[in-house]
Amino acid sequence: MKVIDIEEVTVYASPKENRKLRQQPLSVSLFSKNDLQRNRILSMKDLTSLVPNLFIPDYGSKLTSSIYIRGIGSRINSSAIGVYVDNMPCYDKSAFDFDYADIDRIDVLRGPQGTLFGRNSMGGLINIHTKSPFNYTGTDLSLSAATHNAYRASFTHYHRVSNKLAFAAGGFYDHTGGFFTNQYNGKRIDRGNSVGGRMHTIYLPTDKWSIDLNMNYEYTDEGGYPYGAYNKLTGAYSTPDYNFKSGYYRNLLNIGITSTYTAKHFVLTEVTSYQHLRDRMALDQDFTEKDLYTMFQRQKQNTLSEEITLKSRENTRWQWTTGVSGFYQWLTNNTPLYFGKDFISMLQGQMNAAMAHSPVPVAVKLTDKGMDVPGLFKTPTYGIALFHQSTINRLFGLEGLSTTLGIRLDYEKAKINYDTQAIMNYSMSMNGQALPPASYSAEYIGNQSRNYTQLLPKFALKYDFDQANNIYAQVSRGYRSGGYNIQMLSDYLQNALQKNFGKVENDVEINQAMRYKPEYSWNYEVGSHLTLFDGVLMADMSAFYMRIHNQQVAKFADSGLGRYTANAGKSRSCGVELTLRANITDNWSVDANYGYTHATFKEYLSNTKGGYDNTGKPLLVPVDYSGKYVPFAPRQTYSIGTQYVLHMAERFLVKNITFHADYSGIGRTYWTEANDVYQRAYGLFNARLSVQVGKLLQVDLWGRNLLNKDYAVFYFDSSSANAGFMQKGRPTQGGIDLRFKF
Q: Which residue would you say has higher pLDDT here, 577 or 500?
């Protein structure tokens, strides 16, 4: 029997790792190119349930990439999970959801990775590798068609010019016809198009020096936000029905250069990366057929990062990695709100009712058909870090026993400059006498900055029974930086407008309310990596306990106009993880994984708006969520899959036929801090039949959610519409893929 270790298929020059991932004291899931193909993983969101305790709900648009691992995650603002592509960091969640046309391998590391990777990797890390033109040659062409009017094409050419130079170049196009219909106009909400390309060049000037240049660009123009009204008391769901066309477009450019010098006793790596993101979101904020609120958001982001890493060579008793990294991010958010004619009519009615009780006959008429509320926010952020990690093998002279010690000093400075304003024009008469036209106005202008300094330690013990079997225990600290809420200013602005406050600069309460605190965690973990029965069975298992302070949670503003980040006092998360992969015969394999997470708030006293005082400040009513489950943290994730390959005789044109089927599921998931709305446990059945024709053609017939399971991927409460809204999961879809290899 021939067994292949998937970690040895392709050798990657990792700047920080001294050993293969399954030989390290950490929880990890590995996906080879064959795993990606048989599970039809085309974006990060397709990884859900295939990794224990990983949940990436596919809702909204590509702007929304909420990743949760072990109950740690984020819906808005900074991510809790780090994402790297060919050693280049992705700092913004808006850049996480991109096309996987040229991806060769994905590593998912669970638990805090702050010692080596720093800020915003407290829940884990997703490391993505593209195909190397030194390991692949020729041309790949893929054509796909599927139900729901979905079409896709990708093309990549890999060329090895010499033993010193190789390059790859390709592109893709993806069209989605949409799954959800807007009852207001009868059109598909989530139609979309994406197009892009990648260039990858590797140059080896000498035997010891390599230069790796990677560039990719992607343009996306899609509809989104198929949110339908949901009554949490009766469970009644209504299909989406709103009047304003919502959508999202994005330009995304990544450029990275990795330079590696390999000496006799060490490896020096320098990684320089640049990311440019420019996008626009349009959103019907009330999600009804009325012309009430519309939100627009335009982001322009430029991020430059630099990292220099020095690490020891393998097979030494003392293995070490040390380095320095830094980044600077320029981010401008232009987030205007538009209040439509129905909002003006509603406000006019409220004013008329109030004036009816006046002792003097007074009439006020709002003269604007709508009202623009512009908002400009500039949030430059920069940081620098020093890190070191050492592994000492043969600890105390005992063969197989090792310890890992790591430390990282992380400094970050975040600034904000904001300017948001609103003007409402009106005419007024008193005792039948017309008064000159006038207006209400309000404007908030200000700036502030915050510094964050963190020390992120790690300690681990590991015992190797042999090269393929080990047990470990580790303790590590996680950290997610604080920041600013820009969405919440609309609530203050509305009330200030009614009070006719005028211009307010650097309001102390506003500046304080905009901030949210950093999030911290301590992670305690034990686990094992086993390879049994001469490589027939591979098993990875772990148990963890996490203490989280100031956990960042996303909340909708009481007005319903936007979301903001708040801090829960203390949270706890504990659970277990198990992954199995068995090569039962040369032709038949089975893989399974299971994750259980129990994530609850231990101390969380929140505030809900209960009106305003006579100065226009919001009155807050305390609500205690202690003991409640953390939203968006499924109790369980699981999947089981099997694959059988039928090899044909050499005389046949068809070389092999492969059948793959899997069933993956998500446990109960709460959508709110109050735990009053949740999705019950559910599972999805997927299958694929693949036929290899000669050496050039592979034909795949596939189906997703073949049992047409009805489930939800998102829910939120909206006080502006006095209702809740839900997005359903995708129904059954089937298709055909043609893969050509020249």
A: 577
Distance CA 76, CA 553 (A): 9
Residue with tokens 């790690």: 458
The secondary structure element, H or E, covering residue 208 is none
Distance between CA atoms of residues 56 and 416, nearest Å: 29
Q: For residue 407, what are its two tokens? A: 């430390």
Specify whether the CB–CB gap between 208 and 262 falls below 8 A.
Answer: yes
Q: Which residues contact 278 (CB under 8 A, 6 or more apart)?
A: 250, 251, 298, 299, 300, 301
Range from 80-89, 251-260, 337-346, 372-381 that averages highest in pLDDT: 251-260
User: What's the rounded mean pLDDT across residues 124-140?
Assistant: 92
- Contact yes or no for 678/670 (Cβ under 8 A): yes
Query: Burial letters for 75-88: b for 16+ Cβ neighbours within 10 Å, e otherwise?
Result: bbbbbbbbbbbbbb
Question: Phi first, then psi: what are they for 584, rounded to 5°?
Answer: -65, -45
| Element spanning 35, H or E | helix 33-38
Strands 81-85 and 124-130: parallel
Q: Mean pLDDT lowest for which of 187-191, 194-198, 441-445, 461-465?
A: 441-445
Indicate the Cα dihedral angle 118, 120, 121, 122, nearest 10°.
110
What are the residues whose beta carbons fall under 8 Å from the beta carbon of 539, sequence distance 6 or more? Answer: 528, 529, 530, 531, 532, 578, 579, 580, 581
506 token code pair: 């650097």
pLDDT (0 to 100) of residue 622:
80
Q: Is-contact 639 580, C-beta < 8 A? A: no
| Burial class for 175, CB neighbours closer than 10 Å (0-12, 13-18, 19+) | middle
Residues whose CB falls within 8 Å of the CB of residue 422, separated by 6 or more in sequence, listed in order: 371, 372, 373, 441, 442, 443, 493, 494, 497
CA–CA distance, 404 with 447 (Å, rounded to integer): 43
**463 alpha-carbon distance from chain centroid:** 34
Least confident of 164-178, 340-354, 700-714: 340-354
Q: What is the rounded average pLDDT of the residues 402-427? A: 91
Residue for token pair 């909420």: 66
The two three-digit tokens of residue 338, written as one number: 């538009």
Rounded average pLDDT over 669-697:
94
CA 637, CA 54: separation in Å to the nearest integer? 7
User: What pLDDT, on a 0 to 100 scale, did the predictor assign at position 8?
Assistant: 41
List 207's β-bridge partners, or say none.
none
Q: Burial of 469 by CB count in 10 Å (0-12 exposed, 13-18 middle, 19+ buried)?
A: middle
Q: Which of 578, 707, 677, 571 is nearest to 636 (CA)?
A: 578
Q: What pTM did the predictor assign?
A: 0.91
**Top-confidence range, 290-304, 493-507, 715-729:** 290-304
Tokens 């005992």 locate to: 398
Report which of 177, 198, 173, 197 is spatially closest to residue 188, judged by C-alpha positions: 177
In angstroms, the CA 256 to CA 277 distance is 15
d(CA 91, CA 99): 17
